[in-house]
Amino acid sequence: MTPCHAVDIILTRPATHSELRQASHRVQLAADADRTRLTAVQPARSAGRALHLLRRRLGTHLPIDVLTTHYPDRHGQVLLNVALGRVAHQSLRRSAQALGQRPQDVLRQRLLAALAREEQQRARHLDDRLEDLLADHTPNEVLTRLARRVLAVSTPGHPPHRSPSPPPLGIQPTRRSPAFSSPF
Q1: Fewest CB within 10 angstroms: 1, 9, 58, 93, which?
Q2: What is the count of structural domains for the chain?
Q3: pLDDT band at 157 (very low <50, low <70, confident <90, very high)
Q4: Is residue 103 located within the same domain as residue 78?
Q5: Is 68 in a helix, a strand, or coil?
Q6: Does 171 reside within a domain?
Q7: Which has the closest alpha carbon to 143: 125, 114, 170?
Q8: What pLDDT score does 180 carry?
Q9: Do 47 and 105 share a structural domain?
Q10: Which among 65-74, 122-131, 154-163 has the top mean pLDDT?
């Protein structure tokens, strides 16, 4: 029995109803509300083969930007299928040849570096915002409000607790940089 792989399809623009109808004749699809992300289940021997098959089946019917596995593999990584333009592909091949590596390895390194830069930028932005908050509020006040916000979001259907109760005693938050981990 051939295993099935869940695949996310990210489009360059919202798909038209006609494009979705034509594509759904080839593959069963689930679309999000704005029709820029789709999900499909593709039988194939491997996740890479599933991405390749979907690209071939749908590439002429939908404005596909990126295909990616929906679930990470056992190493916590997702597989990407990116169609590069001729110029970008040639540039990538030249860079890979100069480094003595495969083009997909160079692309992976560049993508991971870009994700790390984005993560660092987001962490710096969060640190700056926290510094601004801590200039006007105590760490206990910030932590209490954050806990209420997180609890309100994590329990849908329950209104956020708004009583002016004092923060719990004994909580001494420490100021340190947030640690992030990436699945890539």
Answers
A1: 1
A2: 2
A3: low
A4: no
A5: strand
A6: no
A7: 170
A8: 32
A9: no
A10: 122-131
Q: Specify the pLDDT at position 179.
A: 36
Domain that holds residue 92: 88-154
The one-letter code for the residue type at 54 is L
Neighbours of 61 (CB within 10 A): 18
Rounded distance between C-alpha atoms, residue 145 and residue 152, angstroms: 11
Q: What is the pLDDT of residue 104?
A: 86
Mean per-residue pLDDT over the chain, rounded: 82
Q: Which residues of 14-36 are buried (b: 16+ CB within 10 A; e: fewer)?
A: bbeeebbeebbeebebebeeebb
Return all residues near 135 (Cβ < 8 A) that are at least 6 apart.
none
Q: Are residues 95 and 71 in the same domain?
A: no
**Do 125 and 56 belong together in one domain?**
no
CA distance 82 to 51: 10
Co-location of 53 and 31 in the same domain: yes
Stretch (H or E) spanning 30: strand 29-31
The pLDDT value given to residue 120:
95
Percent of the chain at pLDDT above 90?
Answer: 53
